[in-house]
Write a structure and sequence with these properties.
It contains 17 helices and 29 strands. By secondary structure, it is α/β, with parallel strands linked by helices. Helix 1 crosses helix 2, helix 4 packs across helix 14 and helix 11 packs across helix 12. The protein starts with 16 loop residues before the first strand and ends in a 7-residue tail after the last helix. The N terminus is likely disordered.
Length: about 625
Amino acid sequence: MTLLAERTLPRPGTGPFIASGPDELIRAFVVPGTHVHAAATMSRPNALINAVARVFAGTRSLTLSTTAVHSNAHALALSGAVRKVITGFLGDTYPAPRPNRLYRDVASGQPFEVELWSLLSYTQRLMAAALGQPYATTGSMLAETDLRDGKDGVLHTVPHPEDPGRQVTLMSPLRPDFTLFHGVCADRHGNVVACPPLGEGAWSAYAARDGVLASVEAIVDDEVVAGMPDRVVIPAARVRGLCEAPLGAHPQSLRTSGLAGIPGYLDDYSFLTDIVRACKTADTAQEWYETWVGGLSGHDAYLDRLGKERRDTLRLTDDTCGRTGPAATRGTATASGNATAPGSVTTPPGNHAVGVAPTDTLAPPTEQEQLIVLGARAVADLVAERGYDTVLAGIGASHMAAWLGARLLAARGIRVEIAAELGLQSMDPVPGDVFLFSQRHAGRSRMLAGIPETLGGAVAANPRCLGVLGAAEIDEDGNINTTVLPTGRWITGSGGANDIASAVDCLVVAQAAPRRYVTSLAHLTSPGHRVRDVVSQFGRFTRPGAGSPFRLTRWLPPLTNGAPSREGTQAAPPATPAEAVRRLTSWRVPEPEPADEKPVTPEELTLLRSMDPEGHYR
């Protein structure tokens, strides 16, 4: 594969190459052996990722770095275009985080080699490259984590120059050849406009050796961009190639703030659900790939296949963010626990309804709902007792517990700031949309920033932050595994969990089972020295700090036994705390003498189901 004829590419200093579409742009610059970086804001350059999959299908020749591989980025695995991926997460994020069958053998190098980092350490490596520094330092990736494995020559531990008894972790800069970026608009000089939250921001644009290949919703006149210099994220000097790609972040969302008259759009939840369903078998996954990526001639054909009606239903407006105008107030929780949201909105087919009351409010809680409510109570208690001012919500049942906990606190007159790792701070999540990174929630956040400001400033530098995390495995010391099962099958990876667990006090919300509450981990993803509380479906384990054993201090009888017996029958749920610990965990903890938790109340259940009317977390 060769570049387009040199005469078709502008010389440096004459402006970017303007391509007819994503496929031509990729063909013009990317060759086998290239390290391509897919920049991650709340949006991804998905039209460019699809082009990479088509152009390099079957070559297994590229290195790709990106914060997370999910949704339509699965096309990279299905196409066989990529040899190595540098990332922090491989799996699915909607409607809930889960493994994807495509990556079950990735620990063994199939469908590609993977180099796994935490989200903040990954971003810090990009920042070091962007700033021309020889190394980045990090407070993540501590010595005990298995994330350090296989990183000789990239990850270094050295004595602290001012205190030789301490150690400092250094990381080599992450410097791709080209960075792919999708923005709102650009002028023909290559000045690219984007809106927060910006995730990794523009660091990867400055880190790339050969510059940026950008797609935008529209290329606009010079004076349009000249009128908004504060919105230019990537300067013209960094952009080598540019193309228009309307809906270029689909099936993910794009926030535009109406700049240049360009509408934003929501995540296409129906499309994302279809991808998850398709990837359950090899045949249906390949069928999805051929239908939406490999079998298409380019991005225009992709848009045609989506159809105008579907594209129009995704449009992002103030109403779809639960707002009716600039003066709209933030949603609150009343003293009775009932949620109030500013307005009720009509949601397009395939997406969540927002502000719609559930019809089965008083149906008994499920075990998952009991887990979330107990987690929310723990969040509320810990914030009130210890004075945390920020709660960083990890994705899954953990973020549902954090959101519900914040509403329970509001009913007590206590305010706590909710944050999400890609840059949402002071969030007021829209009831009815359970996706952690929805643009609807961005529209009701008081601050939109990026990964460094959130995982760095609001978390690592903030001793008053509480992390709320999930776990596929958790041991008696609070260490967490979210990477690989004892069988060798892949889970998802770290994301920001290692960064959070390395820096601040943490609460883990995880359904108890003997294979989840374990004595030995298959992989130590996130260290447990700051994990002080663990919530299960039958109560809360606590300890004063690292080195002390967990004790079951709160007890509510579980609703089920957790798993059928070998004969296929469901045994009665454990009747005592000691029996629950023995049957539903593998932990060896002191004999429990817990206080009783009250059953889930109708008010708590009503509030939770107003947040999750479709029952994704039941």
